[in-house]
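Today's session is about reading a structure prediction critically. Students often jump straight to the picture, but the first step is always the sequence itself: look for stretches that repeat, for charged clusters, for runs of hydrophobic residues. Only then move on to the predicted structure, which in these notes is written as discrete structure tokens rather than atom positions. Here is the chain we will use throughout the hour.
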Amino acid sequence: MEEIMILEFSVSNYRSFKEKQTLSFEPTSDTTNEEYYCHQLTPKIKLLKFAILYGSNASGKTNILRALSFLRHIAIKPREMEDE
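Below is the predicted structure for this chain, in token form.
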């Protein structure tokens, strides 16, 4: 299966997200330990290998994961979405 990587993910009008919220996987300009937390996609593009979601209770952490799960589902199994 081909490797799929997300550069940026935005969601709006979904569960607790009324306004557009964006999760970016592009690293900052800080290069400390970047060999551990960055993946060199192309000579010009680096992506974070992981992200950490933190926040108070009921701040939307689970809803962003649900939105990402929905994206994964429609990307991997688009035919099933047509049947629903």
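Discussion point for the tutorial: The first strand starts at residue 8 and ends at 11.
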